[in-house]
Amino acid sequence: MFRALESAIVNSTSNLITKALAPLGQTSRSMSKLKSHSGAKKRFMPTANGNYKRWQVGLRHLNSGFSAERTNRLSRTVFVDKTQKRMLRKALPYSCSK
Asked: What is this structure's pTM?
């Protein structure tokens, strides 16, 4: 009788401690986090309004024949289009809240 009562007290105490340590109503066994795509993290920067910025391609090498106007245009950053934005929301799940 005494051992059953003692084990019931220990179980209820451990349940209270586990529930107290769980954040805001979540259980101690929560789902795992999503992983961000490491290549996308290095290439795309999220903006405050939910868009992503990226660099232009074609400026690294073989550009000695380009005009100055073209090299200046390629050196700027641009925003991604709608289809890339949809892909980046899955690749970078924690980057933007929008």
From this structure: 0.62
